[in-house]
Amino acid sequence: MRRLFNILLYGFLAICITASVGSGLVYFLLSASVPDYNEDFSVAGLGGPVDILRDASAIPHITASSAADVYFAIGFVHAQDRLGQLLRARRMAEASWPSDETLSVAPAVSDALESYAAGVNAWLELVSAGGRGRGSPELLIADERSIDAWTPGDSLRIARSFLNGLRPESARKGTPSLSSAIIPSDRPKVLELFATDPQQRLDAWAIDGDRTAAGTPILAADISGSLSLPSEWYLADLQFSTGPAIGATMPGVPFVIVGRNTRVAWAFRSFPVPDEEAPRGPSPVQAAGFLTMLELFTRSADATDAIGVAADMLPKGMEALAIDRETVARWPKEEAVRALSFRDIRLAELEARQSIFSTEGAIGVQRDTVSTVARTLLPLMAKELWFVQSRDSIEGTDANDLRRELLDRLASWNGDMDRYSPEPLLFWTWLRALQQRILKDEFPAAQQLWTRPNPNFLYAVLSDRRGSAIWCDIRLSSPRETCEEQVRVALDDALGWLVDRYGRDPSTWTWGEEHRLDMQWSPISSRGLLTDLLSLQAPISGDPFTQFLTSFGVEEDRPFLVSAGSNFQAVMSISEAAGSYYITPAGQSGHPLSRFYDNLFPSWIQGEYLAMSTDLSLARGGASGTSRLTPATSDNPRMSEGQSE
């Protein structure tokens, strides 16, 4: 018996020791790839020394004597902070665009892409020399056994994929267009029914100087897309000898996509392009033109100069906005003719509400969470219910009392999608139940069509546009159901769903309980337990149609889960008095063990913007590190300083 006890004891100790050693080894390998922002490097490919100052938020401010060295350094820091993201973006771009045509691009762009590739490869060589844990934690478990050198074609393909992501999902995936073969013959066509959202969306609006407190124009920019870790955007300040450019860069591309120099700020709006105009998506020529335009923006002297560039190179489906100290300019000069969206309507209301704007006022508009969808559809849904008693279809509750309480709440609600309020949860659950009631009989197999709320379609039906109210009739039943009947039954469906999940007391219901952000770590090629452990979750305000945009998911059990939305916002003014500000949802680093992995997340949730400054003296205050890249010599080629051969 004693011998058995000793065997079990020693076995248990052996397991503990093995687990401890294994955990220590894993931690060592993971921590070895956390960048040291105070480390200096000697690398091949540079023309001169480069200083990289990382401010308190780890945003790099890169100073060099030549543009080539600046682009080299941004490639280096992209790889240093976001190597896994770079490789994932390259893999996805190669899957979409297996090869690119050989293009004759502008010399400045060609040189920039070559320098950027050299910077990425310089970091890859340092990683391959050992001691850096393969450069990124996911590379320890991914199937990337060897890492190919970065090429300018990789950056071109990533730019092409970005432009393709601005197209609706149906255009990107070749989904069949709307046709009479899909819609039953007794139902009128409602074009909004099959509308799909783009993977990414660019929004921007500008205020003339005569309507601002500082007397200079203000440009507000918003990019929406995946909310993942790391963020899709990387903030950087590129200090060229001709002047700085600061803003949002995209790992894989060396240029500032949305941002400003000392004279001009620029941003974009995107809108759907009909399939017949771009059946195969953006061409390599369009991608090259887009990159050329961005390179020229960094050197633009004024807003008119920038828009002149955009007039020649702006891809289809985009509008460009630029401001300087006096002018607001746009291309095309006339806005594209399109139906106003619910977000457009709310933005127009907010712009009309203020006669004079400050940057703080523009920030308030960007963070607005009042939904025009609720303000538009709720009166149509509830107009016949305020004084009508309910059928008791909710087991174990007095349905009339519960319905009356909730209808009273909705009657006094202003449409604010506040995460701590019950009204948004009731409204969207009701809307979702109504859409299911209306569409499930026509499309029983197309679950996503009737489970994800489509307010544009429901507005057409509830307002009986061109006889669209017939959609409320259930085709398989003998009686002809009206929209009023469907709305009433859908409310009972919604209340039953909510009571089952949260109980009978509406004061305990909150929008954020269902409308939760699920920001997951995005590894190169696999997901699993590690991804779940590294994710960030929090209740969040807004909806897919508010200015602060938060999209819904597709999970049946968690229909309002958020994994996409506004992932970069900026308010820019060339006036020193007004200042420029930006906000992103996560951090600069893609490494889960870095303190800059999610350091910006609390500020993003609370709507606290960071100052966008090219002043290096301000960046030095509380700086998180300074490093220098120097050209490698024949005595010490391609080695980090402090390392031996």
According to DSSP, the number of beta strands is 18
Strand content: 15-25%
Distance N to C terminus:
58 Å
Number of helical elements: 19
Low-confidence stretches: 18-29, 174-181, 638-645
Q: Biggest sheet, in brief?
A: 10 strands, mixed
What's the average pLDDT?
Answer: 86
Helix/strand-derived category reads alpha+beta
Oligomeric grouping of the chains: single chain
**C-alpha-based Rg, rounded:** 27 Å
Neighbour order of strands in the largest sheet: 1-18-2-3-7-8-9-10-11-12
Protein name: Penicillin amidase
GO molecular function, one term: hydrolase activity, acting on carbon-nitrogen (but not peptide) bonds, in linear amides
Family: Belongs to the peptidase S45 family.
Pfam families: Penicil_amidase (PF01804)
Give the SSE map:
Blueprint (H helix, E strand, L loop, with lengths): L1 H31 L8 E3 L6 E5 L5 E4 L3 H30 L10 H22 L23 H13 L4 H5 L27 E7 L10 E9 L1 E2 L4 E7 L2 E7 L6 E6 L3 E6 L13 H14 L5 H11 L4 E6 L4 E4 L10 H12 L5 H8 L5 H11 L16 H13 L11 H17 L7 H5 L3 H8 L20 H20 L8 H4 L1 E6 L7 H5 L2 E4 L24 E9 L8 E3 L17 H6 L3 E2 L4 H5 L4 E7 L14
Parallel strand pairs: 1-18, 3-7, 6-13
Antiparallel strand pairs: 2-3, 2-18, 4-5, 5-15, 7-8, 8-9, 9-10, 10-11, 11-12, 13-14, 15-16, 16-17
Helix pairs in contact: 2-3, 2-4, 4-6, 6-7, 10-14, 12-15
